[in-house]
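User: Hi! I'm a student and our assignment asks us to look at how structure tokens line up with a sequence. Could you show me two examples?

Assistant: Happy to help. In each example below, the sequence comes first and the structure tokens follow. Example one:
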Amino acid sequence: MNDFYLGIEHITDFAGYDHMLFLLALVAWASLSDAFRVVLLATAFTVGHSVTLLLAGMGWLHSDARWIEFLIPVSIALTAAWNLRRGAGKQDARGRGLTYAITVAFGLIHGLGFSSFFRMMREDGESIVLPLLRFNLGVEAGQLLILMVCLAIASVFRAIGVTPREQQVFLCAVTGTLAIGMALQRMPI
């Protein structure tokens, strides 16, 4: 069960704040009343990063870490921009489907970022499937913990009069600006 706790620790460690920024940009419009949609988005993200984490962990997929470290904040900035464009949680079925697809795609990028961390934790020749499953379940549990805290805070702000759109604009501006700064620092060329 150690891999499960390692996944929780990895995602809740403030050294990995870029992942937290992504989650915040992803659900900038949400409050506790949107918890079900938020869980679906978090799970879509986990599916994406699980695929690339498995492929990279098995040695079937290789990537340049410099580009991945650059693409992670780019994905945060694009997520913030996407959420600003779409309005405060208002999407039709096609828009929601596209949001889930984008979330899975960005999960693929973030999974490559996780892969080097996960490979360092494994012993040569050790089976990867069950430890990876436990690790990903831990990551998902950690993500959900972070998101529920964020949604609870958003609900408090809603109760004191902050509109969903004001919350969304503020969070997207903050996460997008921080992500652009990170991307400029990590530019591989």
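Example two works the same way, sequence first and then tokens:
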Amino acid sequence: MEKIIVYTDGGARGNPGPAAIGVVIKDLNGHTIKSYGEAIGNTTNNEAEYRAVVLALQKLKLIFGGKKTEKLSVEFRMDSELVACQLKGEYKIEEERLFPHFIKIWNLKMDFREIVFNHIPREKNKEADRLVNEALDKEQEKLF
């Protein structure tokens, strides 16, 4: 069974406000397979965090294909304790606007052998955070 580590982050300037997501996909040796950063319009920090996980799962399916994802173990590392614990089933989801994202993740998870969600300190998620900020900065430049 192959294992992949995925770092995700989402952020909004203002809450809600202009938001972006960052995803870094690595192998077990720490080599980056692919990374993504994109602006997602106006939303909340929590929604952005969820949308980063959705994007990561969709990209993993594209990178590895359906047959390989069935054998893939994926460890998500994120600095949002709330989202990590909600996805693990430890915290209740109380924000209605998060339900559709949770359901989308739940359905995407079915295509993988194993998915684990872990909370990590912000300083260990610098690459995904950088992608969020770069996407937000690029989007802001378009306005001027």
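Here is something you could point out in your write-up. The chain has a mean pLDDT of 95.
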